[in-house]
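Objective 1b: paired records.
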Amino acid sequence: MAAYWGVLRTPHALRVFLPALLGRLSFGMVGLVVLLGIARDTGSYAYAGIATGLFGIANVLASPYRARWVDRRGQRLTLNLLASAYALSLCLMALLTGLAAPVWSLLVVATVIGVFPPPLSAAMRVLWGSMLSTPALRTRAYSLDAVAEEILYTLGPLIAAGIVTLGSPSAALVVTGVIALIGTFGLTSGSQSRAQVVHPQVATRADRPIRQPGFLSVLVAIAGAGIVIGIVEVAAPAFAQREGAPAMSGLLLAAFAAGSALGGLVLGHREWTTSPSTRLLVFGSMMAVLSGTLVLAPGLPALGFGLAVVGFFLAPSLVTGYLLADHLTSPAVRTEASSWINTAVNSGAAAASAVAGLLIDARSTGTAFTVGAIAAVICVAAAAPGLLGRNRMPTEDLSARPAAEDRESAR
């Protein structure tokens, strides 16, 4: 762990990293608080799943535009505006659930919430690139950042479930918005964030990430991981609810995120001899196949263990996807490239969340796990030809590039 502490001792690192973590804690809470708030208000996991799906779809569609806006207008203005709108939308959802508002209004507000989450992960990666001068340090920083984010997704559901249990879903929605607001303003008030250069230029169509060979295959494989995420985020709380222990939903999702954090640590410490495209196929395949075994869980402890095992392959899949996105695209569009990785994950998760709610109401959580696993396997299989065609890519640090180039690009 000494290598990670070396990264954190970089001047100004903790000043921006800590508030960025606080703000991102909100993203570990929001899915569960929206799901539980609407499920309790309407009495239907189908409506709750659809709302979660709409949130995800809006987040997917808006993600590239938010990333471009940050590049062109700067972190301070853009992130502060987005965080304010995000927090206000969550407060509006809290008000509507407290008033037993019509279902259509809840679905509309869930969609609006998905438009505004500030891209704090992207902003933090830009700051890491500006603070660290060598590829090795940046690689450690990205690994640390990924693991820390998974820890937040461990704590987020626990905190959210605790607030819902001790208070109400409405209170949890408000707290989620406030946390995002405080973290974002803390990040953007730092000198490193204020010093970020604005890039108003627009890349040509030929430079767009989606047009680069192999990039679409990466997105398809990553979408498979997103499908598993979406199924788990709806089916695990529903499983806990039907076992008569709704408060355990947070622990189940925490187990999933904890497994992912452990996988990220292993990825960062090991030296790999295989190409990243092959690693993505292996990680994605393991995650997809193992998620299908969750249908066999006889109770909450077994499901929690199974979720941790499945989650072990999540962070490695995502980190490898980000590294491939960096390698396959030019510096001028790396912000957009990384946002496309997020878009692929969120697209899979959003579609799976909506379908999972319907399957759970009509059949069972086991059906949701089975269908999700099959869909994820299909994604990995479809991506395999394109990824295997990129096997000549270097096996070493894919984020290795000149420091100036890092400062001119962003995630």
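Objective 1b, second protein:
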Amino acid sequence: MMKRGGLWSVGIAVLAMISATAWADGLAGLDATLRATGRVGTPAPQAAGGLPATTPDAGAPERARDPRQALVRIEDAAAAQAAAATTTTPTAADEEELQRTDGAVVACRVEVARRRRVPPAKVAAGSVVVRFTIEKSGRVREAEALSALDTDLEVAACAKRVLSQWTFAKRARDALVVERTYRFTRS
């Protein structure tokens, strides 16, 4: 009986050593290796598999591709989208209401000059083209400065901000996309 108990305890001791070794080494010794290098791991290069290099498009027949055709399709789609967005044109009443924004936008040059503590003549201000949408509710959305010719970028940003905060009269028609050029006087 003593021999059986001795074998039993030797077997348990051997199992304990094996499990302790396996636990310390992690997955086939990777745990210790990764902790030693400080790296997470480096993938080993594998043999190229999958698709052969000679067959384009996973076995699809070879066909001519012209990137110019893709550009034409993209330009056509952009032109169609721009035409759809600007289908409504400003009426005389809309134009009169848009002229009211001129003074607020032109005042941006003075605002930037005050912030910088310089005379307005020292702030470059030529012209700014701004595009925005007037919703049926009269609120402005999607205001963006498209160009700022001979104009300080802070002045253009101010013009965009002023128009974004502007509220027009409610409209009976659909939303109106406006692209307007604001010109600053030379001081």
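The first helix runs from residue 2 to 25. The chain has six helices and three strands.
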